[in-house]
Design brief:
The chain is an alpha+beta fold and 284 residues long. Helix content is 26%, strand content 20%. It folds into 2 domains: 182 residues, no CATH class; 98 residues, Sandwich (Immunoglobulin-like), CATH 2.60.40. The strands form 4 sheets. Strands 4-3-11-7-8 form a 5-stranded mixed sheet. A 4-stranded antiparallel sheet has the order 5-6-9-10. Strands 1-2 form a two-stranded antiparallel ribbon. The relative contact order is 0.12. It binds heme C (HEC). Heme C (HEC) binds next to helix 5 and helix 6.
């Protein structure tokens, strides 16, 4: 292994069979996990060799209907929550975001992790990442996937008829570790109620995967949160039409759209984004 080993963290509390977790300063193989964010000692990134991850205590669960490949799958992996105890994180880091090769991102705040116990999958049906299947649309799922033994949507979180969705990113290459209050927390409204609060729940749950604000969310779309907010405020009807069916407004749009969203969901999203614009830049 040519990569320079900058740091080697011996971790207290690990079971005797586990190897100490190392952060390399560069990638040693395409199966390594990049970690980015706030680490103790001021470090902001590193790579965990796959072999190190494979040596950590893991769990094996069977999902009777994997939502990505639509058949039963056996996962062996590490609960995302466990990584918090294994990495040398700076104090207060409580949010993990999985970033995919195409810059799609899935956010996992603490309450979501506690409700659903997402698993960083290392083996699928007992197979190493080189032998993983593709998704039905032909995309590579490797090197990392995140899923659940069984995902049960929380009925209390149903906002404007939109159910809580399973966050199941594939082709994950990086995990980001941040403080919720410094990142996602800034996208929350200070005084939202009713439909506006529902819109916040939907936006943070669905739109953030491809739209970003600072270090929060995914960069797949290239379009930042404030641009969405400006649209919502200036063109409320067009915004709602676009979200439901982007190509009806912009024939070349690459956004998949949300054809299942009904009027309450669309109008609550519009309310959230325009309130966010006012909160962050003031009344125009
Ligand atoms: C799977 C990724 C994805 C998700 C999820 C997604 N978007 Fe998009 N969005 C895109 C892409 C890609 C574009 C750029 C479209 C283009 O120009 O081709 C875009 C563009 C937009 C635009 C137009 C911005 C502009 O300047 O052209 C709006 C408005 C928008 N999205 C709103 C939303 C809202 C609201 C949500 C959540 C309900 C959402 N998007 C979720 C991928 C996504």
């Amino acid at each position: 292994m040519k990569a320079l080993r900058l740091a080697c963290f011996l971790l207290a509390g690990l079971v005797a069979s586990a190897q100490p977790l190392e952060l390399l300063s560069e990638r040693s193989s395409d199966g390594d996990l990049e970690v980015v964010g706030g680490f103790s000692g001021g470090r902001t990134n590193g790579f965990i060799p796959r072999a190190q991850l494979m040596n950590l205590p893991s769990v094996t669960v069977t999902n009777r209907n994997d939502l990505e490949v639509h058949r039963p799958l056996v996962y062996t992996g590490i609960p995302l929550d466990d990584l918090f105890g294994l990495l040398p994180l700076a104090p207060g880091i409580d949010l993990v975001t999985a970033v995919c090769r195409d810059k799609y991102a899935a956010v996992y705040p603490k309450d979501y992790r506690q409700r659903h116990q997402p698993l960083l999958v290392l083996k699928l049906d007992g197979k190493d990442y080189a032998d993983w299947p593709s998704t039905p649309s032909g995309a590579r799922m490797a090197p990392f996937y995140i899923s659940y033994g069984k995902f049960v949507a929380d009925p209390k979180l149903t906002a404007a008829d939109v159910e809580e969705e399973a966050r199941i990113p594939f082709a994950v290459v990086t995990l980001r570790f941040d403080r919720f209050a410094d990142t996602l927390g800034r996208l929350q409204l200070t005084n939202a109620t009713g439909a506006t609060r529902d819109g916040e729940t939907i936006a943070l749950g669905q739109c953030l995967a491809c739209h970003f604000s600072g270090a929060s969310g995914g960069r797949l779309s290239g379009k930042p949160w404030l641009v969405l907010a400006a649209w919502a405020k200036a063109e409320p009807d067009l915004f709602q039409k676009y979200v439901r069916n982007p190509r009806q407004v912009e024939p070349t749009s690459r956004m998949p759209g949300f054809p299942n969203y009904q009027a309450p969901a669309l109008s609550s999203l519009q309310k959230y984004f325009s309130a966010y614009l006012v909160q962050s830049v003031g009344e125009p």
